[in-house]
Amino acid sequence: MADQNVPPRRPRDDRGWDGRQHPTPGGYHEPTPSAPYGYVSPEAPHGGYPAQPDSRAYPGSAPRGPQWVGPDGLDRPAPVVSGLPELDGDDEPARPVGRRRALVTLGGTAAVVAGGAALAMTPQVRGLFGDDAAAGDATGTTVTDGTAARPSGQQPSTVRTYTEQNESYMGSRAGEALKKNAPSGGRSFSGPAAAAAETKVTVKTVLAKDPVLHLARRATFGPTPEVVADIRRMGIDAWIRAQLEPEKIAPSRAELKLAELPSLKLSVPQLRDQRDQLNERGAQPEREMVDATLARQIWSKRQLFEVMVDFWNDFLHVAADFDGGEVYRNSFDVDVIRTHALGSYPQMLVAANKHPALLLYLNQNDSRADAVNENLARENLELYSVGVDGGYTEKDVRQAALLQTGRGVNDGKYVFRADRHYVGKVKILGFTHANNSQDPKKADAAIDAYITYIALHPSTARYVAQSLATRFVSDTPPKSLVDRLAKTYTANKGMIRPVLMTLFSSSEFWAAVGQKVRRPMEYLVATYRTLGVSPEASPKHDNGDNKRTPFARGLRQIHDKLRELGQFPMGQPTPDGYPDVYVAWTSAGAMVNGWNEAGELVAGNRTQFTYAKPEKLVAKPPATAGAYVDALAQRLVQQKLSAREKALILGVADLPATAKVDATFNGAITAVARAILASPQHHIR
Question: Quick one: which of 292, 294, 301 has its CA closest to 259?
Answer without folding.
Answer: 292
